[in-house]
Input
Amino acid sequence: MSIQKATTIYDIAEALSLSPATVSRGLKEHPAIRKETRKRILDKANEMGYQANSFASNLRRNRTNTIGVIVPRLNSYFMSTVIAGIERVANKSGYNLLISQSMESITKEMANVKTMFNTRVDGLMVSLAYDTEDVDHFEMLLRKGIPLIFFDRIFEHPNCTSITIDNYKAGYEVTNHLIEQGCKRIAHITASQKRNVYADRLRGYKDALANKGIPFDKKLVFINNLSDQAGIEVTRSILEMKTLPDGIFSANDACAVSCIRELKEAGIKIPEQIAVAGFNNDPLSKVIKPNLTTVEYPGEEMGEMAASTLIRRLDRLEGANLNSIVLRHELIVRESSKRK
Amino acid sequence: MSIQKATTIYDIAEALSLSPATVSRGLKEHPAIRKETRKRILDKANEMGYQANSFASNLRRNRTNTIGVIVPRLNSYFMSTVIAGIERVANKSGYNLLISQSMESITKEMANVKTMFNTRVDGLMVSLAYDTEDVDHFEMLLRKGIPLIFFDRIFEHPNCTSITIDNYKAGYEVTNHLIEQGCKRIAHITASQKRNVYADRLRGYKDALANKGIPFDKKLVFINNLSDQAGIEVTRSILEMKTLPDGIFSANDACAVSCIRELKEAGIKIPEQIAVAGFNNDPLSKVIKPNLTTVEYPGEEMGEMAASTLIRRLDRLEGANLNSIVLRHELIVRESSKRK
DNA sequence: CTGTTAGCGCTTTCAT
DNA sequence: ATGAAAGCGCTAACAG
Output
C-alpha cells in the first residue's frame, strides 16, 4: 500500500469547481454559505476522505487546539476518573490533551507549565501540587491571555475559573455524622494546609466540633501525605496516645483504609471503638471490611465541567466568565461509622 | 501587560543581518553553518526569547512532534510510573504526549486510535485492552508508515517493536518459589488470556508445576479482571472448595492484596495455611500485612525504553529496528510466602 | 453568497 | 557557508 497524499481543501474545491475559501467556510458553520453548497462540500469531503490539516489551521489562526492538563499524580481512581471526563469533552470538541504529572512537587509543576507554555496550549487546567505556594509560575500564561482553570486543588485568582466541591461543607458533614454516631474525640488526618481541599475540610471539621460544643484539640490533627504508608504511621502514633480517639476522619480513602487495617491489626473494633470515615468514594472503600463511610466526589463530572468551561471560554461562548463552580458531593454512610 | 508578538526567525535574521534560512539552519545542527555564526544565532535567539513555532515547522515538514500513548487505564501505580518514564524522555527530546485511556475496551481503543491518527501523531505507543483480539485497527497507521510500539500488553507484529519483561519466566519463578516453600496446590488468578502478560505467566505457572511433577488442575485457574472486587469474589470461590489450595499466585498485586484480606477475614493464616504472591511490586505490597511477595516490574524503565525506541525510530537513529526488547524483572520475596 | 489574495513561520531545494 | 524563493494548507480581510 503506497503512502497516499492527503486530500486538501484545494482538491475538494477543484472537484466541485468552487474556491478553496468557500470550501473552508463550508466545512465550518459559516453563516454565509448556502445550505446546499455546504452539503455538497461536506459530502465530497467525506467521499474523498478529507482530514483537516490542523497545523495549517493552527499556523494561520495562531491556535493549537490543544489543552494542557497538569495534575499532581495520575495513579488514583479519582484522578483517572477526572481525566476520563476531560477526555470525553475535549475529544468531542476536537481538542487534544497534553497531560503531565507534577508528582506533588512545585519544581516539576513549574517545569510542566513552561513546557505547556512553549507548546502554546490554548488553555490549561491545573490541580495544584502539595507544596505550591503561589501561582506566579502561571503568570506568563495569563499575560498572554491563555485561560487557566483550576480544579479540585485550586487557587483563588480573579482571572481563573475554579471548580471544586464544597470541601468545607463536606468536612463539616463528615465530622457531624461522626459526632451523631456518638464520637466525642475525633482525629482528623489531612495533608498540606496550603491546599484548599485540606484546609477547607479542616475548617469544616473544626466548626462541626464547635457547634456541638466539643473542644478542638490540635493534637488530634495529623498532617501527612495521605498515602498508605502515612496511614500506617499515623495509626501507630494514634495507638500510642494515652486516650484513644473514638473517631477518625481521613481526608482521603487510601489513608482511611490503611488506618482501618492497622487498627484492626491492633485489635481495635471498628466502628465500635473507633469509627472511621474517608473521602473520595474510591472503589477501595467498598472493599475494606467494614465498608468505609466516605464522601462521593464527582470526579468525571468535575473533569467534564473543567473541560467544557475552558472550551467555552476558548470558543468565546456563553457562561465562560464564571469565577467559581461548585459541584455537589454526597456523604455516603457505610459500616465503618455506623454505631446506631 | 500587552500581548506581545512572538519572535520569529525573521526577527533574528534581521537583527543579525542574516537570511532566515541561515537562522533556521543555525538553530538546528546543520553541518554547513560556521560555528561562530551558529553561536551568534543561538545567543540572539536566547536574548530575544525566541520560541520555535512548531505549527509552521510541522506544516512544512509534515510532522507533528507528538507521540500518542494509549493505555488501558491510568489509575495504577504501575501505569503512572510508565507514563512518568515516557514523559521524561519525550520532554527531553521535544516531543509532546497525547495520552488516552481505552478503559479496557476494544471499542474505546479503536476510537482512540482513530483520534490519534487524525491528530497525525508521529508515532504511537500502546498497551492493549483486555478484549482486543487483533491489531487491525492499527493498520491505518502502519500503512502510513507511522511507527507503532507495544509495551507490557503487546501483540507480535513484524513492523512493531515490543517491550516487555519475560512474563513466562516471572510466572515460572513465582510458582517455583511457592513450590519450594512447600505449596503443592497452587491457585492462579489471572486475566484475559488474549493478553500476553497473562497467558505467559500462566504458561510459566504450568511449566513450573510440571517440572516438579505437580499435576495441573484447571479448576485452580481463575480468570477475572484482577480488581479488588474480583479478589473478593475469587477468594469466596476458593474458600468454598472442598480442598483449599495452599498457595495463591495472583497476576497483580491489587487482587493479591484483596485476597489476603478476605482470607484473613475468614481466619486463614498467611503464609502458614495459604502462601500468597502477587505481581508488579505496587507500594500496596509493602503495606499489607503480611507484606506481599511480588515481582518487581521496571515501569519507569519500560516507559523510557518505549519512548526512546520510538523517538530513535522517528529520528532515524540507530537501534530503532529491534523487534523486541525484554527488560529485567525481579522476584521479591516477602512474608506472605515465607514458610521456611 | 462566493471568490481573490495575502500571508501565518518555517524548511528546503537550488543558486551563488 | 549563506541567500533567494517557493510553498506546506488553511483562513480572513476585502471585494464583488
Remarks:
- Chain B touches chain A through 51 residues (CB under 8 Å).
- Chain B has three domains: 9-52, 65-166+299-329, 167-297.
- Residues 42 and 91 of chain B are 20 Å apart (CA to CA).
- The domain at 65-166+299-329 of chain B is CATH 3.40.50.2300 (Rossmann fold).
